[in-house]
Amino acid sequence: MAAGLLNANGVWIYGEGDPSSPVSTLLNLGQNATSNAIGSAKTRLSSLESRATVLETKVNTTIGTIIQSQGTATQAGTASNDITYASALLTVPAGTWMIQAHANVINTMVADTAVVAVWNNTTGSEVPNSSGPATTTSTNAMTGLSSRLTVVTVATSTVFAVRCKRNGGSAITVTASNCAGTPAAGIEAVRLR
User: Which residues pair with 140 in a beta bridge?
Assistant: First the structure.
């Protein structure tokens, strides 16, 4: 080779026409090793970038996934009984989820307090620490209530529901608002893991 040049890895390979031509072969021994190391590093980097792209795609399709269920049907409760709203059941796959429930409620007997919580329909139990604030409701006046944002981890597919609780001997009803298309109750979940 008459003159030196940069190879594909950006390393200078000396040629016979370079000012240090008498020792070009000796100098290229180090340059070839450097070039090989850079080529190997580029290959590993390309592989890591490909894996990162695959991982990013998986994360983007799972983390942050939002699922929801809403119902517009009215569901009346009976005196002294809490109700689980049957028209908005939400099935979540295994994973960690942040869940919140909401409902429009009416106490039909007396003014009383009401609370909305998240109900694990699969186990038949209330999700711990999911009860929203107790709110005093007027007789036959609609009140919108929400549960607390609650993080749950489930090992298998699990069904959640809106649980409406009342105090004392009152009766609670879940009903749609007067605004067209507004759900009576619903439950939403965002995947965290």
Answer: none
User: Residue 112's CB: how many other CB atoms inside 10 A?
Assistant: 20
Tokens of 164: 């409406």
What are 60-95's pLDDT values in tens digits? 657 777 888 888 888 888 888 899 988 889 999 998
Query: What token pair was written down for 162?
Result: 């809106």
For residue 187, how many other CB atoms are within 10 A of its CB?
Answer: 27
Q: Is the dihedral of CA 126, 129, 130, 135 positive or negative?
A: positive
Encoded tokens for 161 = 């529901």
Which H or E run contains 190? strand 185-191
Q: For 120-175, write each residue's pLDDT tens digit.
A: 999 999 999 999 998 887 777 788 888 999 999 999 999 999 999 888 778 888 88
Take residue 90 and report the two structure tokens written for it: 């939400």
What 3-state class would DSSP assign to 21? Answer: helix
Q: What is the pTM of this model?
A: 0.66
